[in-house]
Write a structure and sequence with these properties.
By secondary structure, the chain is an alpha/beta fold. It has two domains: about 230 residues, Type I PLP-dependent aspartate aminotransferase-like (Major domain) (Aspartate Aminotransferase, domain 2, 3-Layer(aba) Sandwich), CATH 3.40.640.10; about 110 residues, Aspartate Aminotransferase, domain 1. The chain is about 40% helix and about 15% strand. It is built from 13 helices and 13 strands. The strands form three sheets. A seven-stranded mixed sheet has the order 1-9-8-7-4-2-3, with helices on both faces. Strands 10-11-13-12 form a four-stranded antiparallel sheet, with helices on one face. β7, α7 and β8 form a beta-alpha-beta unit.
């Protein structure tokens, strides 16, 4: 970063209420909701903990669908509230609707993760939420990794709380997050005596200090740079159109799958359950040095580190030239230098054919 660019980050003028109002409107468009939006001046894992602490308490029975590490964390936060929590562990093969329906018997709340960056797998969220609407179950969705890559329609799908972050497909910062909250969810939170109050984990504090005021004064001390960065990211997203951004990520997934298939590699997630945020590839011993955490080509996390590697095709990496360069590196590292042209053709054709 040069001196002029660094200087622009310093001595920022105070964040204005109008900027927050615009940000909320863009977030609502992104989430496809007319309901309220809560901002959290922290990375989305903090907001997920706040949501778990707010919607559950003694007397609640919660089905926690665990598709990866964040689902396991969420279950721990739910248990801390005194709620009765039932974990339904789902692997990369997906969650059949009949299994989900049976597991929901007697539950008043369900928590799901739309797509997992760690596993490269997603859920058929629209179909599963049709079941929750039938049963009247309050729904909490972790869409942090999915938003901008997978379609998400909060109002049409009947989602009560959807938590998102800006750092992946939206191409924004990690340090501020947001959630949509339905009227039904607000009623649950307000009637929950164990919901946090006067706390950094309190959704009610934001509602009472901002949403239910004339919005002339931003509560607390907002993160100026992170909030403005998310606003800039969402302005860019909606200049292109959220549908176009989602299409770009679907094309990136298709191009990656075509390239790794041409190299004779096997995708780790099941067909039909492969997320648009990243592609996981079964390869226990990739060549040393090619995988870097957070890069386009990245190692698996935690217990999956020895089973797969990830192609993180989100944000700026959801671009044909970036992907083609990455597939070139992968082919060369695996000793398939003679296949580079064939791999590039396969990826390019898949990108163009995907709608």
């Amino acid at each position: 970063m040069n001196a002029l660019a660094a200087e622009a980050l310093l001595d920022q003028p105070p964040l204005q209420p109008a900027e927050v109002v615009e940000l909320e409107a863009l977030l609502a468009r992104t989430l496809r909701t007319t309901g309220s939006v809560v901002l959290c001046q922290a990375e989305a894992v903090t907001l997920l903990e706040a949501v778990a602490s707010s919607v559950a308490g003694p007397g609640n029975r919660v089905l926690n669908v665990v598709t990866g590490p964040y689902g396991a964390l969420f279950g721990g936060w739910l248990r801390r509230t005194g709620a009765e929590v039932f974990d339904l562990v789902v692997d990369h093969q997906g969650l059949p609707e009949p299994t989900f329906r049976r597991a929901l018997a007697g539950m008043d709340t369900v928590a799901l993760t739309q797509a997992e960056a760690a596993t490269g797998a997603n859920l058929d969220l629209a179909a599963l939420l049709a079941v929750t609407r039938d049963l009247g179950v309050l729904t909490v969705v972790d869409a942090v990794a999915a938003i901008g890559a997978e379609p998400l329609a909060v109002d049409d799908w009947g989602i009560d709380v959807a938590v998102i972050g800006g750092q992946k497909a939206l191409g924004g910062p990690a340090g501020v997050s947001a959630a949509s909250v339905s009227d039904r969810a607000w009623l649950r939170i307000e009637n929950n005596p164990s919901a946090p109050r006067s706390s950094t984990l309190s959704l009610l504090d934001w509602a009472e200090g901002w949403l239910r005021t004339d919005r002339s004064r931003i509560p607390g001390t907002p993160s100026v740079l992170e909030t403005r960065a998310l606003l800039a990211a969402l302005r860019r997203v909606h200049a292109d159109g959220i549908a176009a951004v989602e299409l770009r990520h679907r094309r990136a997934r298709a191009a990656t799958l075509a390239a790794v298939g041409r190299l004779g590699l096997r995708p780790w997630a099941a067909e039909g359950r492969r997320a648009a945020i990243c592609t996981t590839v079964a390869l226990p011993s990739p060549p040393p040095g090619i995988l870097q955490p957070g890069a386009l080509l990245a190692p698996g996390d935690g217990p999956l580190a020895g089973e797969l590697f990830r192609v993180n095709h989100y944000g700026r990496a959801a671009d044909p030239e970036v992907l083609l360069a990455g597939m070139d590196r992968l082919a060369g590292a695996l000793g398939f230098t003679g296949m580079r042209d064939a791999v590039r053709r396969a990826a390019s054709d898949a990108w163009e054919e995907t709608t």
